[in-house]
Amino acid sequence: MKYAISYLFLFIILVSSCGTGKKNSTVTEPEEERYKLAVCDWMILKRQKIGAFELAHAIGADGLELDMGSLGKRDSFDNKLREPHFQQLFKEKSKEFDVEISSIAMSGFYAQSIVDRSNYLDLIQDCLQTMKVMGVKVAFLPLGVEGDLVKNPEKRPEMVRRLKTIGDLAAEDNLTIGIETSLDAKGDIELLNEINSPGIKIYFKFQNPLEAGRDVYKELRILGKERICQIHCTDTDGVTLPHNERLDMYKIKEVLDDMDWRGWLVVERSRDANDIRNVKGNFSANITYLKQVFQSGL
User: Fold this and answer.
1) Tens digit of pLDDT for each residue in 268-284?
2) What is the DSSP string of 63-97?
3) Are 66 and 81 spatial neighbours (Cβ–Cβ below 8 Å)?
4) What are the residues whose beta carbons fall under 8 Å from the beta carbon of 60, sequence distance 6 or more?
5) Rg, Å, the chain Cα set
């Protein structure tokens, strides 16, 4: 009888230690895995250049947001990554310097709008193909000055129609296009609901609500973690992040922690206006500070 009781006691202990399949609450995800830090290749003056990986490593970044190349009045992006030679070379440099590719950017749309491009699908297909060959899940698409839906509301119906098409194409390959808009968080939610595609999410940028006088912390909470695919974790140029008095990065982390958000924080701007061309100095200062905030475990 006493053996039966002993076995029963041992069984109860084993079952209790295994739980119900949920993670042990004392086991936490490492901060450097939850939040990873990248820089934009075009902002470190290395757009689609092999040297971007070495520079990103020297800056201290975990990753690099690769641009599709300049666009302007061209019919297509100036995209080296259509060529297998460059695809392989970029992958090798990524591995050599231990710098991941966080995302692919279509920064050429900052100055124009997909609504005004008759060949927008060709441009998007080029980006999606680049994402697939480079093993990247997220792309950045700014709606741009010409696609500003606050200043150009007449463009909204066609913008929604095109973004729906784009999102559905991306979703077919389990990819996400993150859009940057001039709308507030509630406006972004309304826009996402109109688009109604799993392939479109918000690529959030701290600069936009700050410039518009909105509460960036409330905006994040309103959007929620499922609608934000990636974050441009900077303000406009002026001072580097350690000296920015209108952006409390520790409070940002607290909000993102509470939301249970995780992913890439990408440094785009926040350069010292008095030393704007000092790429290594500006971006190293920002990455070092963000590591202290997001990856120190404090």
Assistant:
1) 999 999 999 999 999 99
2) EEEEE----TT-SS---GGGSHHHHHHHHHHHHHT
3) yes
4) 37, 284, 287, 288, 291
5) 22
pLDDT tens per residue, range 12-65: 433 344 443 333 333 456 777 899 999 999 999 999 999 999 999 999 999 999
| Helices (H) then strands (E): counts for the chain | 11, 8
Spacing of C-alpha 113 from chain mean position: 20
249 vs 297: CA distance, rounded Å: 14
pTM, rounded to two decimals:
0.89
Residue in 103, 37, 59, 39 with CA at minimum distance from that of residue 291: 37
Give the containing element (helix H, strand E) for 225. Answer: none
Tokens of 129: 């193909």
Residue ranges per domain, the chain?
31-294
Under DSSP, is residue 217 helix (H, G, I), strand (E, B) or coil?
helix
Do β-strands 200-205 and 263-267 pair in parallel, antiparallel, or remain unpaired? unpaired
Question: Domain spanning 31-294 has what CATH number?
Answer: 3.20.20.150
Report which DSSP code applies to 295.
Answer: S
Number of other residues whose CB lies within 10 A of the CB of residue 69? 22
- C-alpha distances in Å from residue 145, one per residue of 23, 111, 150: 45, 6, 10
